[in-house]
Amino acid sequence: MAPLPPGPSIALVETFRYMTDPVGAYAWFRKNYGDTLTVKTLEGPLIITGEPEGAREVLTADPTSYEIFAPENLRMVFRDGSVPLIVGEPHRRQRKLLMPPFLGARMRAYAGTMQQVALKRMGAVRPGETIPMHEVSRGITREVILRNVFGLADDSLVARFEEAFVELQKATTPALLFFSWLRHEFGGVGPYARYLRANARLDALIAEQLTARRANLEAAPDDMLNLMMTSKYDDGTGMTNEQVSKELVGLLVAGYAATATAIAWGVYWTYRSPEILRKLREELAGLPADAGPEAYASLPYLGAVCNETLRIYPPVPDMFRKLRAPIQVRGYTLPAGAGVAVFSRMIHSREDLYPEPDTFRPERFLERKFTPYEFIPFGAGVRRCLGAAFAEQQLKVVLATIVRNFDLELADPAEVPVRQGVGVGPKNGVRVRLAQKLLS
After folding, report:
1. Which residues cross the membrane (predicted)?
2. Measured between alpha carbons, how far is 284 from 440 in angstroms, rounded to an integer?
């Protein structure tokens, strides 16, 4: 077999390092082995690249040359048969069906709900009260997805879904995600049994909602769920309730956690710098008085702040594949059966692309444009995050709504990034104190 890039050799140690301190692991990998390396994981050899050209080679490879890496771990988060767990032609077919709700005018229509929910959730905070911003942003993104994607209008039903989903998120611990030998029910007790019960509860709620919607589909509102339930494949067939349920869970899981974390980090970086906050408020103040939240999408400095937030802690920090056929990456021939990964956080912290990469400096996105393999917060290629545009819009709308209407103070100016699920979140939740409401 052709030689692979060098790297550390102790699988358990490296898996634990990556699981508990991902940002530290990325830096350690680069310092000791460079930008392309091999790590022996519990799933077998994994070739990692943190180079833009390596990312291009991996992410533009023939889709038939790879399959899902460690699918049994991803099944803790996504449903079998949903977009994140299929490859090749089935993936193309399903993605094509799901893409229309995330395009054009439909996307702009979601902005109003995003703003309303942000104002409601933040408006419930009392002046002088200290809150974990990450918890508030989770509440915002959960409700936005339940209303815009699941099509829920009734407040009590939204609350039931939220309660079920929070229970599932709490039960989906990093240990269960990374260590398959912990996934045993033990007679109905323990963390895995708790996870299965939470999973079943959410599935039952979704099934109830879909059955009710399907029974009166012609009179249903023209929302994202309606579009999912009425869209047709090329052969004229549509998704069953079971398939719709799988995709809804995927959209909820992927969109909720990643976007909520990005919003929390955006608040942290913005309110940490008086100069950034001043520039952002000046730009927002320049909007016409009758401008709706969809106008935020065209603001350059707001876009730069959001991009810099996504650069430092990208929502999709790592993209994994398992090879069905050999591919070439950075001069190495990677064999079938090996794992391969693009670590976007490593790319985003390259000094040659982003001088002083640990410094939050939005202006870098106004000074130059980056290629899709230099700035890669949502992945790239045929498996780019399906809801990337939805997430980007929600980050802009919610951050702008908070900055425009609430004067906050950071209670913990030195926040620490830690592993939270598959992403990197703030250890202390970005604790902020509401100084005053600026609502007109």
Report:
1. 248-271
2. 14
> Within a 10 A sphere around the Cβ of 157, how many other Cβ atoms?
15
The closest of 407, 111, 408, 400 to 280, measured between CA atoms, is 400
> Smallest Cα–Cα separation from 11: which of 174, 178, 177, 176?
178
The predicted-structure confidence for 50-77, as pLDDT tens digits, reads as follows 999 999 999 999 988 999 998 888 888 8
| Domain limits, the chain | 11-437
Encoding tokens for residue 316?
Answer: 């999709």
Strand, helix or coil at 153? coil
Report the C-alpha gap between 317 and 346 in whole angstroms.
Answer: 9
What's the confidence (pLDDT) of residue 164? Answer: 93
pLDDT under 70 in the chain at which residues? Answer: 1-2, 10-11, 422, 439-440
Strand-strand pairing, 318-323 and 423-426? unpaired
Check if the beta carbon of residue 399 is closer than 8 Å to that of residue 270: yes
Distances (CA, A) of 361 to 97, 308, 358, 367, 374: 38, 7, 9, 11, 16
- CA–CA distances in Å: residue 415 to residues 215, 273, 360, 412, 435: 49, 14, 13, 6, 20
| Residues 37, 28: Cα–Cα separation, whole Å | 11
- At 349-379, the pLDDT tens digits run 999 999 999 999 999 999 999 999 999 999 9
Q: Is 318 helix (H, G, I), strand (E, B) or coil?
A: strand
Residues 6+ apart with CB under 8 A from 141: 255, 256, 257, 259, 260, 263, 394
- Counting every residue, how long is the chain? 440
Q: What is the DSSP letter of 152?
A: -
Q: How much is the pTM?
A: 0.92
Helix/strand/coil for 67: strand
Q: Residue 439 has what DSSP assignment?
A: -
pLDDT for the residue 251: 84
pLDDT of the residue at 1:
57
Given this model, what pLDDT does residue 140 score?
97
Kindly report the CATH number that applies to the domain delimited by 11-437. Answer: 1.10.630.10
Query: Which helix (H) or strand (E) element contains residue 410?
Result: strand 406-410
Q: Tokens 């980050």 sit at which residue? A: 395
